[in-house]
Description:
Two copies of one chain form a homodimer. Chain A is globular and about 50 Å long. With 333 residues, chain A is α/β, with parallel strands linked by helices. In chain A, helix 2 crosses helix 3 and helix 6 (198-217) crosses helix 7. The longest helix of chain A is centred in the first third of the chain and has 20 residues, at 47-66. The model of chain A has no long low-confidence stretch (mean pLDDT 97). The first copy, chain A, has helices spanning 22-25, 47-66, 86-92, 108-122, 137-144, 198-217, 233-246, 258-261, 277-293, 311-315; strands at 12-20, 35-36, 76-79, 99-101, 128-135, 160-161, 164-171, 177-183, 188-189, 226-230, 255-257, 274-275, 299-304, 306-308, 321-323, 326-331. Chains A and B meet through helix 3, strand 4, helix 4 and strand 9 of A and helix 3, strand 4, helix 4 and strand 9 of B.
Amino acid sequence: MQHIFFPKHPPRILAAASAVGYEEARGPFGASFDFHDETDLFGGDTWEHAEENLGHTVLNLLLSKAGLRPSEVALLFAGDLQNQCMASSEGLYAEKIPFCGIYGACSTVGEGLLLASLALAADERLPNAAVLTTSHHCVAERLFRTPLEYGGQRPPTAQWTATAGGGFLLTHDRGEVAVTAGMPGVMLDAGVKDGANMGAAMAPAALLSLTAFFEKTGEAPRDYDAIVTGDLGYAGSEILCDLAKRKGLDIASVHLDCGGMMYDKRKQDVHAGGSGCGCSAALLAAHFLPALREGKLRRILFLPTGALMNPDSLKQGGDIIGIAPLLRLEGIR
Amino acid sequence: MQHIFFPKHPPRILAAASAVGYEEARGPFGASFDFHDETDLFGGDTWEHAEENLGHTVLNLLLSKAGLRPSEVALLFAGDLQNQCMASSEGLYAEKIPFCGIYGACSTVGEGLLLASLALAADERLPNAAVLTTSHHCVAERLFRTPLEYGGQRPPTAQWTATAGGGFLLTHDRGEVAVTAGMPGVMLDAGVKDGANMGAAMAPAALLSLTAFFEKTGEAPRDYDAIVTGDLGYAGSEILCDLAKRKGLDIASVHLDCGGMMYDKRKQDVHAGGSGCGCSAALLAAHFLPALREGKLRRILFLPTGALMNPDSLKQGGDIIGIAPLLRLEGIR
C-alpha cells in the first residue's frame, strides 16, 4: 500500500506556465495556453532542439509570472521522454538552477509535483521549488514508433504525443492552490506489449492508485469535483472507468482525462487522444489550476499516468509498465 | 548558489548492498562487494536484461540486510543509464514498491540519496526510503559508443562503464551513518563534446558544487577525511584537483574518486577508469559506508558526477553537461 504524504503546511502553487505546438493550439483549450508556435520548431533546427526550446520558453514564462530571476529558484525537477532526458538538461541548464532530473514517462509532472512538495515540507528555509515537463510529437514518433516521414499507419488505439510543456513554481505559503496530499505511484505490469495501446497499459496503474488513496483516506469519488488522469486517452479512459466500476468505484461522472481533453475528438485526427509528459502538465497549468484559483473547481485529484517502456524493451519481450502518482489539489479561497 | 539541506534529524543509512560483474570483482575492492557474476549476465538473456537482474539482485540483498519485506519499503528512488531508465523499471517493478524514477547519469545515486533524505525529513511517518542505481558495461557501450562486437578502439581518456549496482535503505533513526547535509547539483556546460572524455566534462561541475558548499558552510577540505567524487576517472580527477588548486582549494590530499578506485590501474585495461550509475553506488555501499560505520572514516563528502548527454545530442552539436549533487555523510559512534 502506498504511503500518502499529508503535508502539515501544504505547499502552494504560486505560478504555472504552458506552451504548445500547432495541433494543440487548435484543440478545445488552445486559447488557454500561454504560448504556441505554429511551426512546432520553437526556433530549433531539429525536433529535439525544438523540444529543448519549448522547455526553455516555459521556464521563462514561469519565472516571469512568478516574478523571479533564475537565481532565485532554489530547486528544479524536470523530465521528458527523450533518451537520457536530454530535452530537460539541454533546454534548462543555462539558467544554472539546482536540478534534479526525473523520469516517469507521461506521469513525470506528477512525480515532480510530489517531489517539489516533499522538498518544501522537508525544509522551511527552502524558498521554492519548480517543476517542468515537456514532450514533442515529432521527437516521440521518431523515438518510440517511426519517423513521421515514413507516413506509417497508426491503429485507432494509438495516442498522439502532444507538443506541449508545463511549468510550476511551488512555495510555502504564496499561491491560491495547495497540494494537500501526494502519493507516489506503484509500477504495475498489466501484460500489455503494444506501444500503440498505452492507455490499456496505464489504466490498471491509475486504478491501483485511486483505490489505494480512497481506501486509506476513507474518501470517495463524490468528495471531488474532478478526478483528472493524465493521458489514458479515449480508449484507456473507458478501460479505467470500466475497471473501477467492477471494483465498486463509480468515477465516470467526475472523471476527466488530459489525453482526452487536449484535442477535439471530432475534428482532429489524433486517434485515441493525447499523451506525453507535456500533455497533462500543460492542461494542469492552463486549465485546472486557473479553475481551482477561480473557485470553479474546489478540490481535484490529479493523477498523470506513465507508460514505462522503450522500443528495445518491447523488442526484447518486455511489457509496458504503468505507473500513476497522485496529487490532491485544493483551491484556497 | 545551491541551497544546502541540513536535516534537523539527519536520516540514517540502515543498510546498503552491492553487486558487480567480472571485471569489477577483479578490482582492488572486488572482495568487498556482496555479490558478483562471472558471466556478467546475472541470468539474463540480453545485456539489458542482465542489468535488470543485477538491480533486482541488489534490491533483494538490500531487503535481506535491512530485514524488510518488499511491502515494508515505503518509497524507492532508482535510475540507470538505459533509455527511459528501463533497467530500473523492468528490474524493480515486481516488488510493487512505490517508485520515483530519477535521472542524473552517473550522479544518479547522489540525487537519489538527497531525495530519499528529503522525503524522510518531510514526513516523520514515512518509515523508510530506498535508493538503487545500476549500470552495465555492455549495455552502455552499445548505447553510447559502439557495440562491443565491433572491437572499436578506445582513446586513453575513455572511461569504462562499470557493471555494478548499489542499493541503500534510509530510515529516521536506525543505522550508523547519517546524512547530515545534502545539496543538489547545478548543470554546467564546460564545452566538452567528446563522449570519450567525460571526466573533463564533469570535473568543473564537481568543483562548482565543492566551492559552493565550502563557501556556504565555512568548512574546508581539511574538515573531511575524504572528498569522494564519483566517476571522474584518472583524467577527470587530475583536472578537478588542478582546477581546485587554481581556486585556492587544495583537495588533492583528501580526494578520492570512485572511477579511479574501481579497477587496478596497472593490471586492468580500463583506460581512464570506471564510470556508470553503479560505480560510485557500489563503492559507497561496499567500501565507504563500512569505513564510516567502523570509524575508519568519520566524515566524508560524497559527490557523484554525471555527464548529461546521449549520442543524438552530441550528433546534433550539443555539449556534454556536467552535474554533481553533494552529500555529507558522517559516522555515528
